[in-house]
Design goal:
By secondary structure, the protein is an all-alpha fold. 39% of the residues lie in helices and 0% in strands.
């Protein structure tokens, strides 16, 4: 999925998960991803 693409690239670039918001996921789902909620 897209989160594996851009999120993976951001993680490889050293961006912490807490700084990445998966905007294409609803806030209710985001809280379960390990990434930032907003």
């Amino acid at each position: 999925g897209t989160e594996d693409g851009i999120a993976g690239e951001l993680l490889e670039a050293g961006i912490p998960k807490e700084r990445i918001v998966l905007g294409f996921k609803s806030p209710g789902v985001r809280k379960h991803t390990g990434f930032a909620v907003a």
